[in-house]
Design goal:
- With 255 residues, this protein is α/β, with parallel strands linked by helices.
- The protein has one domain: TIM Barrel, CATH 3.20.20.
- It contains 8 helices and 9 strands.
- Strands 7-6-5-4-3-2-1-8-9 form a 9-stranded parallel beta sheet.
- It is globular and about 45 Å long.
């Protein structure tokens, strides 16, 4: 089991991450304070929901305000593209990269997420700007239509490492119980063979079990609802924390 390292912290395994999806500054700051009080291990700012995404300098400043509102809780910064389940945005990829650069230079976030299916030059640019500031890079892939074969999942996990990711993340949509088993088997294999932590989840109602037991198969993070969900199948923070505590007491997870 490879945990995700955070600056100056030794977080619980797996990290419980709660998304922030407010569309305005005031909504985000209120959401950050309220969600942090529910005791997640990490917050994710889904900036594709934010109406001010085009203002790179403003986004960078707000990342610091969010962290302060959340009492210093670690922060993951994510723009999810519409092709991988995110909100439509009115800026192009060059402007998105400018936002990532401003956020990295501000230094208020611990991790940034970028999709590994992006053009190689863009992935390399985000890798360089995050590494320069000591910010961990999550390279991710999301399939809202199906669960690819185990070998395809294995290749995607490996690609994240080959591209310089510090964490490899895959999310898939199961069509049956067997698909959930495929995702968990691929996660276990990747967690044993890669040098970086892996994160995975099967989405929707069928996949909800993977958000609870995924850590036993090597997934270093699970996403839970603070106020609003960012993907189907997420459960409330309190419910996920309670389920993980039960697994720890049973010895299935590290204490």
């Amino acid at each position: 089991m490879k945990a995700i390292a955070l600056k100056g912290r030794q977080p619980a395994y797996p990290l419980v991450c709660a998304p922030l999806v407010g569309r305005s500054r005031d909504a985000l700051l209120a959401e950050a304070a309220a969600v942090a009080a529910k005791d997640p291990g990490l917050l994710e700012w889904r900036v594709d929901f934010f109406e001010g995404i085009a203002d790179a300098a403003g986004v960078a400043r707000l990342s610091g305000e969010i962290r302060q509102a959340a009492g210093g809780l670690p922060l993951l910064f994510t723009r999810r593209s519409s092709r991988e389940g995110g909100e439509p945005i009115a800026i192009d990829e060059a402007q998105v990269l400018a936002v990532y650069r401003a956020v990295c230079e501000a230094g208020h976030v611990d991790l940034v997420d970028y999709e590994m299916a992006s053009p190689a030059a863009d992935v390399a640019a985000v890798r360089a700007m995050s590494r320069e500031r000591g910010i961990a890079l999550v390279l991710s892939s999301h399939d809202f239509q199906a669960t690819p074969a185990r070998e395809v999942l294995r290749e995607r996990f490996a690609l994240a490492q080959a591209l310089g990711g510090d964490v490899a993340k895959l999310a898939v949509m199961p069509r049956n119980e067997e698909d959930v088993l495929v995702l968990l088997a691929a996660t276990l294999q990747a967690s044993r063979t890669l040098d970086i932590p892996v994160v995975s989840m099967a989405m929707g109602a069928l996949g909800a079990v993977s958000r609870v037991c995924g850590a036993a198969f090597g997934s270093a993070m699970s996403f839970a609802v603070g106020q609003s969900s960012s993907a189907p199948g997420q459960m409330p923070i309190a419910d996920l924390n309670a389920a993980l505590a039960s697994l720890r007491r049973a010895g299935a997870l590290p204490g």
